[in-house]
Amino acid sequence: MTIQGQQFIGETAVKGANGEIFGFDAASGEKLQPSFGGATKDDLERACALADAAFDTYRETSLEERALFLEAIADNIMALGDELVERCCAESGLPRARVEGERGRTVGQLKLFAGVVRDGGFLELRLDPALPDRKPLPRPDLRLRKIPLGPVAVFGASNFPLAFSVAGGDTASALAAGCPVIGKAHSAHPGTAELVGRAVQKAVKDRGLPEGTFSLLFDSGREIGQGLVADRRVRAVGFTGSRGGGTALMRIAAGREQPIPVYAEMSSINPVFLFPSAVKNRGEAIGKAFAASLTLGAGQFCTNPGLVIAVESEGLDSFVKGAAEALSGMPAAVMLTRGILDAYRKGVDAVAGHAAVAEVAAGQDGGASRGQAKLFAVKAEDFLAARELQDEIFGAASLVVRCRDEAEVAKVIESLEGQLTVSLHIDEADHAAAKAILPKLERVAGRLLVNNFGTGVEVAHAMVHGGPFPSTSDGRSTSVGSLAIDRFLRPVCYQDMPAALQPEALRDGNPLKLFRRVDGVMGQN
Ligand SMILES: NC(=O)C1=CN([C@@H]2O[C@H](COP(=O)(O)OP(=O)(O)OC[C@H]3O[C@@H](n4cnc5c(N)ncnc54)[C@H](O)[C@@H]3O)[C@@H](O)[C@H]2O)C=CC1
Ligand SMILES: O=C(O)CCC(=O)C(=O)O
Q1: Domains annotated on the chain, with CATH
Q2: What would the pLDDT profile of 72-96 be if each residue is shown by its tens digit?
Q3: Where in this chain does the record put each Aldehyde dehydrogenase domain (predicted)?
Q4: Which residue among 211, 302, 403, 417 is the active-site one?
């Protein structure tokens, strides 16, 4: 077994001396060996000092070198083979096919970012040559490139132990931007975190990069995570998790002497709008597809469809019938951790106990150790009067909001918090009605989908996995897809800088053959 209960501080692998952490088999609750130690304040200090020391060297690696590093991480993750898959399945309770798929996504996004780095477009190079004879005033020589922000703290997510964790999207985009990364491992999957951390550490060494390019710390409480966000050398934070956790980190970051951006992905209930013609023609089929999306991964997706909105009709009834039939055959599911199961049950009980809410469908009951899928319904007027019905229930629970008419649908939209996704189920006859509400929906969410559900985010150039608060802390960006790199960059302008001092990418003659906007014109010039 290569799992040794170690964290990584630069090139060293050490067991933390600040409390004990164990992984658990999510299905049986059995404690997994070995134990892990939480980082001490000295470990935190050393990881931050190394990251800071690595920054200036790492950020000036050639684009090719950086791309090869990302590809080396991907290769090293694959080389972990079955040990990684088995440990990850045990710690998360997720089935093998899902974990293998997630590993493919993780490796795929590292390779996508290798391509983004080689392309160089993310540097956004702009040159406005000097106009010494311009009247009434000459124009100076202006050259712009984007540079990385500095060391980034990445909090691994519990629900995607590979794709949103140690070498997940936030790490890949930060490293691609040129930022050293200090990971904060999630205690729900310490063994998985160690294995992946070792793969990243090996890539740093093999590619001859400064050791502080990557560290991974464990935290037996909250102190190390909070200390990371507060450390003056850390310049940005990536986080996926609860609203409480994300907003706590936002407060720490905002209270620093030099505040820093926190890119936190938090709660989203991903409203699904059912239009009259679509539900009339195929309500039952939409209901069945909805049930599949709702229960995917035990509902532990931030893109899970937690709210369904429609005008009362027979079509809506057939949607509920289709969903109920499909759900009735769904087994209760192992959840990621005991804490997440307890939070799910509490959330479900709170909704079930609401006077205006009725249960309309349920999955199979799996006893105290499994999460049972639930579908509830409420009248729009009652939904509008009860803000708490918009709270995310992390798991396979959803709420149908029955509206009297389109005006009531509009009121529900007005009441919505920011979302990662909004789905519209429409036929051609619904296009006019859909067009009427699209501008309102654009205000609400980062991704608008038609005749589908938000679960299963494609890692691509045009993807947006973000949205207004509280779905994320900063809706101007995405955490999935190549645009994610932009979160960890800032523009710098070099005015009248002598050629010898200019960054190579901005020199006359375009020595790196990159795309640049010269005097407003884009090209390889
Ligand atoms: N919307 C989403 O994507 C997700 C939502 N969740 C929600 O979060 C609940 C708990 O799940 P977790 O994954 O454990 O999320 P969490 O937010 O409790 O923890 C995520 C990470 O942040 C750290 N953290 C949390 N609060 C902190 C604080 N105040 N100071 C410093 N560090 C802090 C934790 O140690 C962990 O590493 C779930 O039941 C669910 O409601 C969880 C995962 C994803
Ligand atoms: O739906 C997906 O594939 C990603 C979901 C996600 O980002 C999350 O659950 O944290």
Answers
A1: 41-266+476-487 (3.40.605.10), 271-450 (3.40.309.10)
A2: 999 999 999 999 999 999 999 999 9
A3: 36-467
A4: 302
| Protein residue with its CA nearest to atom 7 in ligand 1 | 242
Measured in Å, residue 523 CA sits from the centre of ligand 2 at: 36
In terms of Cα–Cα distance, which of 162, 180, 261 is closest to 473?
Answer: 261
Give the SS3 label for residue 323.
helix
Q: How many C-alpha atoms does 78 have within 13 Å on its Cβ side? A: 12
Beta bridge partners of residue 311, listed in sequence order: 403
Q: Which amino acid is at 51?
A: A
Q: Is the pLDDT of residue 1 over 90?
A: no
**Catalytic annotation on 428?**
no
Helices then strands (H, E): number in the chain? 14, 21
Contacts within 8 Å (CB) and 24+ apart, 492-501: 492/144, 492/145, 492/146, 492/147, 493/142, 493/143, 493/144, 494/142, 494/143, 494/144, 494/145, 495/140, 495/141, 495/142, 495/143, 496/130, 496/140, 496/141, 497/141, 497/143
Q: Which atom of ligand 2 is nearest to the CA of 157?
A: 10
How does strand 307-311 pair with strand 142-148?
unpaired
Cβ atoms of 115 and 234 within 8 Å: the answer is: no
**DSSP secondary structure of 335-362:** -S-HHHHHHHHHHHHHHHT-TT-EEEEE
Contact 436, 414 (CB under 8 A): no
Reported pTM: 0.97
Comparing CA positions, the residue from 207, 204, 188, 189 lying closest to residue 8 is 204
Q: What is the DSSP letter of 61?
A: S
22 backbone φψ class: left, alpha, beta (φ>0; ψ -120 to 50): beta
Instruction: Look at ligand 2, atom 7, and give the residue with the nearest C-alpha.
Output: 302
Rounded CA separation 512/516 (Å) = 11
157 lines ligand 2 (CB under 6 A): yes
What residues contact 105, with CB distance under 8 A and at least 6 apart?
Answer: 162, 163, 459
- Sign of the Cα pseudo-torsion (473, 477, 478, 484, in order): negative
Q: Tell me which of 71, 102, 211, 265 is the catalytic residue.
A: 265
CA of 146 to the centre of ligand 2 (A): 28
- When pLDDT is averaged across residues 103-119 and rounded to a whole number, the result is 98
Residue 371: pLDDT band by 50, 70, 90 thresholds? very high
Contacts with 140 (C-beta within 8 Å, 6 or more apart), sequence order: 130, 495, 496
Q: Whose CA is nearest to atom 42 of ligand 1?
A: 241
Indicate left, alpha or beta for 38 from its phi (over 0: left) and psi (-120 to 50: alpha): beta
SS (H, E, C) 102-119: HHHHHHHHHHHHHHHHHH
265 is catalytic: yes
